[in-house]
Amino acid sequence: MSLISFQGVSKSYPIYASPRDRLKELLTFNRRRYHTDFWALRDVTFEVRRGETFCIVGENGSGKSTLLQIVAGILAPTEGKVEVRGRVSALLELGAGFNPEFTGRDNVYLNAAILGFSTAEIDRMFPQIEAFAEIGSFIDQPVKTYSSGMLVRLAFAVAIHTEPEILIVDEALAVGDIYFRQRCMRKVHELRSRGITILFVSHSAGDVKALGDRTMWLDAGRIRAIGDTDRVVAQYLAAMVEKDTAYLRLHQREAPQRDRAVSAPEVVTEIPNIDHRYGDRRAEVLGIAILDPYGRKLGLLQPGETIVVRISVKAHDHLSQPNVGFMFRNHLGMDFAGTNTTREGYALPPMIPGDVYTVDFHVQLPVLYPASFSFSPAIADGDLLNYRMCDWIDNAVTLQMGHADGPVYGYMHLPCKVEVNSRLMKPAPEEAPRA
Question: Which residues contact residue 293 at a Cβ distance below 8 angstroms, ignoring those fewer than 6 apart?
Answer without folding.
Answer: 306, 307, 308, 362
